[in-house]
Structures are given as structure tokens and as C-alpha cells.
Amino acid sequence: MTTADPISGIFAALADPTRRAIVARLAEGEATVNELAAPFPISMQAISKHLNVLEKAGLIVRTREAQWRRCRIQPEPLRDVASWVAQYQRLWEERYDSLGTYLDDLQKEKP
């Protein structure tokens, strides 16, 4: 996956529900590839492709111990996404406040 910036790569990686589920599982702790694949009715090859996308986005790291490949989450990219989204929190809060004021005005106008 080639992206213009890291945030785009992270959003692209998280656009797939299987990859989001893998990230959620890894937020609980490290897991082997087999453990990550167990809940999904897809091939190991498909899981490997999902893991490659997550790894290229910097969201996970894979290590090899004997015959096992373990994965763990890399939280820093998620923090970058959260910071980006937080920029818009004030805008949302202002709009909710405006909506609240509008609804209060409507209630006052009722006979």
C-alpha cells in the first residue's frame, strides 16, 4: 500500500472490518497468527494479507519465535489518528450547542 501520508495509510488499513477486529484483539495482548485467524471464516492466506496491510500501516509488528509468528499492536499510529480527529471535536461541540439552542427556542415557542 502506497499512500501520500501516514494518516491515509492508517485509515485505509482500518477501513476493513476484519483488520479492525484484529487490531481490537491485539489491543488485549500479543497473539500468534493462528490465534488471530481462529475467529474468522477465511483462509490463512487472507489473514496474512490483512496482517501485511496492518504492518505496512505501522499498526502492528510481527516477530518470529521458533515456528510461531507473534503479532502485537503498535499504538502510536492510533494516537496520531485520534489527534487528527480531535481537531474537529470543537466544531462538533459548537454544532451540538447550536442545535440545543435551536431546540430550546422551538420548545419556548410552543403554546
From TrEMBL:
Pfam families: HTH_20. It comes from Actinoplanes friuliensis DSM 7358. It comes from the Bacteria. This is ArsR family transcriptional regulator. One of its GO terms (molecular function) is DNA-binding transcription factor activity. Residues 1-93 form the HTH arsR-type domain. SMART domains: HTH_ARSR. Transmembrane segments: none annotated.
